[in-house]
Amino acid sequence: MGTVEKVGAIAGFSLKTLVVTTIGILLFGMYIGVLIFGENSLTVLQQLKEKKQNLVQEGVRLKNKNQHLQKAYFELKQLEPKEG
Fold it and tell me: How far is C-alpha 46 from the chain's CA centre?
């Protein structure tokens, strides 16, 4: 085995194979990073689920408040003298 062949081979792999594998691993790592921390990530999905739950609760609270206010309004409306 010559010197040139030893320089181009590490642990039985060619330099080209190592470079392609390294680039592939880096790209896959970047993809996973974007998937976890990016604009359309799992973190954002969890935050949106929490926000949706809070908005649903707020909607229920506002509907209940609206019912009470309508009841008070109609009670006051019945107390007004009728013009006729």
Answer: 5
pTM score: 0.54
- 7 pLDDT tier (thresholds 50, 70, 90): low
Which residues have CB under 8 Å from 42's CB, separation 6+? 35, 36
**Amino acid making up residue 43:** T
Sequence-ordered list of residues with C-beta below 8 angstroms from that of 45, at least 6 positions apart, any chain: none
Q: Across the strands, what pairs with 9? A: 14
Q: Which residue matches tokens 């080209």?
A: 16
Give SS3 for 84: coil
